[in-house]
Amino acid sequence: MKSITIKGSERESVGKVATKALRNAGAVPCVLYGGNQPVHFSADERAFKNLVYTPNAHTVVIELEGKSFNAILQDIQVHPVSDKILHIDFFQLFDDKEITMEVPVKVVGVSPGVLLGGVLRLNTRRLKVKALPKNLPDFIDADISPLEMGNKLYVTKLVSDNYKLLHPDNTVVAQVRISRAAMKAAQEAAKAAKAPAKGKKK
Length: 202
Known about the structure:
The protein folds into two domains: 3-93, CATH 2.40.240.10; 100-193, RNA Polymerase Alpha Subunit, Chain A, domain 2, CATH 2.170.120.20. It is built from four helices and 13 strands. The chain has helices at 16-24, 49-52, 112-115, 180-194, and strands at 3-10, 27-33, 39-44, 59-64, 67-78, 85-92, 99-108, 119-122, 126-131, 140-143, 152-154, 164-165, 172-177. The strands form three sheets. The chain has a six-stranded mixed beta barrel. Strands 10-7-9-12 form a four-stranded mixed β-sheet, with no helix packed on it. It has a three-stranded antiparallel β-sheet with strand order 8-13-11, with no helix packed on it. One of its GO terms (biological process) is translation. This is one of the proteins that binds to the 5S RNA in the ribosome where it forms part of the central protuberance. One of its GO terms (cellular component) is cytosolic large ribosomal subunit.
């Protein structure tokens, strides 16, 4: 999985006054969990642009004055009106410990059902996976090439030896639905087939 580097500074004071001062200065207060003890730090709000405002998933390298930590974003708080980032929690990664995170789904292939006028619906845009940090995928390929009109792609078709998918077997990732136009054409064709041929004697 691709990684983004965040350079920050450890903070000694974590009270409300200090936190407000950080935000006023354009910095985001953060906490790194998962280690022996939480690490409180802050970083420039612009440093999180490529981590937060993207549909992609990334791991994070947090650099704090000579120390480096591998982590993932665990939780984020934003202002309800301005969408300004208020606080971010990270979780530290260790090479020998599995981690759980959501990974985006990437549609690949061409569906015969779509070519015939069906509508592709992506039911699940992100899937929760559990894996060692080195095995975390950038995205999960959802191959729709076998899907005919009305077919569904279940999560069981996306299994991998590198990670576990934490979803029930009946989870639908994508499906090809019959479009209104295709349904109308099928109904008209059925009516035409049932109707007596023009000019045919009874």
